[in-house]
């Protein structure tokens, strides 16, 4: 697992030192306040564990750092908070998030671009994005009026259905981190989405 025990010990020491010192070095000569580092670390753990693109980036990072992530971090349909995960699952997420942050920002940019992970996903549900994280996303991973692919839309529908959510265009767009996932679509596939709840599939929702 990313060099197994040695890497885990190194990262744990880095986190503990960050709490003690009040700062974390994200790359040689560049330090950020510890609480701003932990905000990003938590966001990356959420990226790896939740959302329709989680499995894609999880598999890629797992392959690169020799970690075998589970098919899904959440077996139950209710609750997607990473704080509720088993300690071993959180350990896996921490090691993969650490891998993304190593060699900052080049490795992070390369992996996100390869997996088509853009600003809308990386900043999703993040009330305050630390500048050192936001700047990299703005400069290299920002997409204006991004139109999700058919595969991404279908993945979002599957994800929402699996969480007992109400499948509708608004929910799909929010899940993908865009204002309107169906605007300016050039696909020949028609998505005739009518609001429905998995448990109330026959019940019309106005």
Describe the structure in your own words.
- This protein is mainly alpha-helical and 206 residues long.
- The protein folds into 2 domains: 4-140, no CATH class; 150-200, no CATH class.
- Helices cover 50% and strands 4% of the residues.
- The chain has a two-stranded antiparallel sheet with strand order 1-2.
- Helix 8 (150-162) crosses helix 9.
- It is globular.
- Residues 200-206 have low confidence and may be disordered.
Q: What is the residue-mean pLDDT, rounded to a whole number? A: 83
Instruction: Note the overall shape.
Output: globular
The strand count comes to 2
Computed structural class: mainly alpha
> What fraction, in percent, of the residue positions are helical?
40-55%
Give the spatial strand order of the biggest sheet. Answer: 1-2
Number of domains: 2
Number of helices: 9
Strand content range: under 5%
| Rounded radius of gyration (Å) | 18 Å
Low-confidence stretches: 200-206
Terminal Cα span: 49 Å
The SSE string, one letter per element, is HEEHHHHHHHH
Largest beta sheet, briefly?
A: 2 strands, antiparallel
């Amino acid at each position: 697992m990313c060099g197994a025990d040695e890497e885990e010990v190194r990262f744990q020491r880095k986190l503990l030192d960050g709490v003690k010192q009040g700062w974390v070095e994200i790359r040689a000569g560049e330090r950020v306040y510890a609480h701003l580092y932990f905000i990003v670390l938590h966001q990356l753990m959420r990226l790896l564990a939740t959302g329709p693109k989680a499995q894609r980036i999880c598999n890629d990072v797992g392959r690169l750092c020799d970690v075998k992530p589970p098919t899904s971090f959440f077996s139950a349909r209710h609750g997607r908070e990473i704080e509720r995960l088993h300690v071993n699952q959180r350990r896996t997420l921490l090691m993969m998030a650490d891998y993304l942050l190593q060699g900052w920002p080049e490795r992070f940019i390369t992996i996100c671009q390869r997996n088509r992970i853009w600003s809308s996903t990386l900043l999703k549900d993040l009330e305050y994005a630390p500048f050192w994280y936001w700047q990299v996303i703005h400069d290299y991973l920002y997409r204006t009026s991004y139109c999700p692919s058919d595969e991404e839309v279908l993945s979002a529908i599957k994800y929402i259905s699996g969480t007992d959510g109400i499948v509708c265009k608004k929910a799909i767009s929010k899940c993908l981190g865009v204002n309107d996932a169906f605007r300016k679509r050039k696909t020949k596939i028609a998505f005739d989405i009518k609001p429905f709840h998995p448990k109330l599939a026959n019940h019309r929702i106005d």
